[in-house]
Amino acid sequence: MSTAYVLINSDLGKDIDIIAKIKEILQAEKDISFEIQGVYGVYDIIVKISSDESATVRKIVTNQIRKIENVQSTLTMVVIEEQE
Question: Which DSSP string do the residues of the chain spell out, in sequence order?
């Protein structure tokens, strides 16, 4: 199982819109599980994405989440599978 945590910085006041868009994207994907939360601190949103295919996780982060309007930046941390 490939798991990634994506930390997202958003434009001021746009976090709710971005969370809704990410939920829409991830609910349309097959064979993944996810959690998404707004957070206080350096980042505005945290997303946990898991899939049996690491390529699926990379594709979602690179081709979809990072391209959402009002996303300023992302930091993706991939879990070391051997340590799970």
Answer: -EEEEEEEEE-TT-HHHHHHHHHHHHHHSSSEEEEEEE-SSS-SEEEEEEES-HHHHHHHHHHTGGGSTTEEEEEEEE--GGG-
**Res 34: pLDDT:** 96
* Nearest Cα to Cα of residue 47 among 33, 28, 63, 67: 33
Tell me the C-alpha distance between 9 and 3, whole Å. 20
Averaged pLDDT in 10-residue chunks for the chain of 84 residues: 95 95 94 95 97 91 94 95 70
